[in-house]
Fold this sequence. Notes:
With 122 residues, the chain is an alpha/beta fold.
Amino acid sequence: MIHHIAIGTESLDRMAEFYQKIPGCEEKVEKYEEKSGTLRSVWFRFGSTILMLESGPKQATKALVFLLAKENASLWREFFIKIPKEQTTEFSIYFSDPDGNRLGCSAYPNAWKDLINEELNQ
């Protein structure tokens, strides 16, 4: 089980705005520096996993992939209509956050087209 994933960014506000729109985002918590009061990180809960956006140098993972399930398919469809897709496979759709970190949404073992019933612009 994964407790959290941390992503460094020099654009904390812009990244937080993006991730808050991802389907499945259940909670947002802001953390501030004790002495200066400046925003140091923004935490989001996705199910039992916490995604931490940390102020600092970008150090991206290869890909952070979210679950596309029947119960959230309509939310993902609305999300994908608004953003550019970089690559699609039978099971997954890949895109990037504002810092260029590679993200994805996977329906494996189902094909994503079986859950999102309309073609998405590529």
